[in-house]
């Protein structure tokens, strides 16, 4: 299931194609892409550049913006038409919402938030973090029908672009605005041009120690230099230094970047559950005993107001920014 936002084909889709490839190589099956929306022709063209067999398209002005019922009806129609063995979603806000609804409708086994997908003896086998990432569970589907999984962003690499103009199959679905319980009227972007923390490959996150919204700018400067997004602890969000959309943790977002730089964040368990699966964690803290250092790959003991501007300068030199 592809995600298309304001006409563009999101990166998670290219990761899902890679994940699907590992299954298709085992089963000899084909990779199919489901696209839903209005004004999605450009995204469909982009999907064609990847090694996929067919692209199913449900186009309707009612589906211009994401709605649970609308998209569930559209994907259900695609599943009936395409008869897939496995359906993959991104473990994103949309994917989590949609997979549960569609899974119930088509009576599928759904495994959520997976970090690995595989297929053996007719069963979907996945690995998924449980107990807030403390351990990984290996889960195997046991039902006969279609199997579904949502895959965490930033786990699989983006697929190569070796596609040869996949066939596009249009699927129609009759759905009216009345059947959609809630309609999104408008979307306002909060961080223009920046990736959401759930999609970012690099995150520079700040905590209570930043002391003000104004001071968060030093993190933004470092983030801009590195092409990163800015994240925050709940203490920073509660104090009004950063918006809730940037909050990482139990009551914020679960992120999985290649690099997470925690600046003046103590490492409370509720923060760790949101970022502990990051591939490389760097902690900057003036307290050598801060718990975050136990989870960090690299630690810098020091005052973030000195360390962060120095890092920005060094990265500028390195990256020629
Ligand atoms: C139900 C529940 C849900 C929660 N959900 C979340 C959540 O989603 N996300 C989340 O983050 N928290 C969450 N929390 C809150 C969590 O328990 C912590 O209170 C919070 O993470 C602390 O934020 P902090 O690390 O920014 O602040 P603090 O714990 O106050 O840590 C500040 C750190 O900055 C260091 N420091 C201070 N000044 C400097 C400086 N100049 N340079 C370098 N280091 C400095 C200090 O040594 C300290 O380690 C939740 C709590 C509860 C009860």
Would you kindly provide a written description of the structure presented here, covering whatever features stand out?
- The protein has helices spanning 11-27, 41-48, 68-82, 93-105, 216-226, 234-238, 269-275, 304-319, and strands at residues 4-5, 8-9, 32-37, 54-59, 86-90, 109-114, 116-120, 123-130, 135-140, 147-151, 167-170, 202-206, 229-232, 259-263, 280-285, 298-301.
- The chain has 321 residues and is α/β, with parallel strands linked by helices.
- The protein folds into two domains: 4-179, 3-Layer(aba) Sandwich (Rossmann fold); 202-319, TPP-binding domain (Rossmann fold).
- Helix 3 packs across helix 4.
- The longest helix is centred in the first third of the chain and has 17 residues, at 11-27.
- It binds flavin-adenine dinucleotide.
- Flavin-adenine dinucleotide is lined by residues 207-209, 233-236, 247-252, 264-266, 268, 270-271, 274, 284-287, 290, 303-305.
């Amino acid at each position: 299931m592809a995600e298309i936002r304001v006409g563009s084909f999101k990166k998670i889709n290219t990761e899902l194609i890679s994940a699907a490839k590992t299954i298709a190589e085992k089963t000899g099956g084909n990779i199919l892409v489901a696209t839903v929306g209005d004004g999605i022709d450009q995204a469909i063209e982009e999907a064609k550049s990847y090694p996929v067999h067919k692209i199913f398209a449900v186009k309707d002005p009612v589906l211009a913006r994401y709605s649970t019922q609308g998209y569930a009806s559209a994907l259900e129609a695609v599943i009936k038409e395409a008869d897939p063995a496995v359906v993959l979603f991104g473990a994103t806000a949309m994917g989590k919402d949609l997979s549960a609804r569609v899974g119930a409708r088509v009576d599928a086994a759904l495994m959520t938030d997976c970090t690995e997908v595989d297929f053996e003896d007719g069963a979907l086998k996945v690995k998924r973090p449980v107990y807030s990432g403390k351990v990984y569970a290996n889960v195997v589907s046991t039902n006969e029908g279609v199997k579904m999984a949502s895959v965490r962003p930033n786990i699989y690499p983006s697929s190569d672009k070796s596609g040869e103009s996949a066939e596009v199959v249009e699927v129609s679905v009759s759905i009216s605005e009345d059947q959609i319980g809630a309609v999104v009227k408008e979307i306002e972007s909060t961080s223009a041009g920046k990736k959401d923390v759930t999609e970012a490959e690099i995150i520079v996150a700040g905590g209570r120690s930043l002391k003000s919204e104004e001071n968060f700018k030093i993190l933004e400067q470092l983030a801009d230099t590195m092409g990163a997004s800015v994240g925050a602890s709940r203490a920073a969000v509660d104090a009004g230094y950063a918006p809730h959309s940037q909050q990482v943790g139990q009551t914020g977002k679960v992120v999985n970047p290649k690099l997470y730089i925690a600046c003046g964040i103590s490492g409370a368990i509720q923060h760790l559950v949101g970022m502990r699966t990051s591939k490389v964690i760097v902690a900057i803290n003036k307290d050598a005993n801060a718990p975050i250092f136990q989870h960090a790959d690299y630690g810098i003991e020091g005052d973030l107001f000195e360390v962060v501007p120095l890092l920005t300068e060094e990265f500028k030199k390195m990256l020629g920014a």
